[in-house]
Amino acid sequence: MLRFFDFIFSFLGLILVSPVLILVYIICLFDTGKPIFRQERVGRYKKPFILFKFRTMVPGIASVASHLADVSTITPVGAFLRRTKLDELPQLWNVLKGEMSLVGPRPCLFNQTLLIIERETHNVFSVRPGITGLSQINKIDMSTPHLLAETDARFLAQMTIAMYFKYILMTVVGKGGGDVVAQHNSKQTKDFNR
Fold it and tell me: Rounded to two decimals, what is the model's pTM?
């Protein structure tokens, strides 16, 4: 049933927000020259998939978790996109394709070994990763792998259709936030983008 809602909402969403997608794409084109960011993430049953986002950091950055990145790599436009969550809109395509759900655990990178181990312990990879969920609206990010995995597990145990709509609504009205980006490690994270 949730997959049905995912398909309908992502299809309608892509149509309804297409003017916004085009506008943001053009703005990002002038901002970084490469508006769409593609990154391999861990999907359902640990299968890899390519996640799409609007680029919020300077190009040429290697794939590490956001909490290991430096805030100086985020462009002014990117900061606005992250704050308003507009950078996540291209993931509606991932949802439409069945790689993600609107609501689910945020997909991690394959190099986030500790988080993967914690999530395997809690059977988190049995579901599609999502754009938003319990962890996101409570601002629990990937810098705390154990807490994140435990929260994901609690979220899955309590998941209902009503909760599905609740998480979407809370995200739309601005509840929660994305992964924390550190204000240090600039020398170590010059090759990062997200």
Answer: 0.86
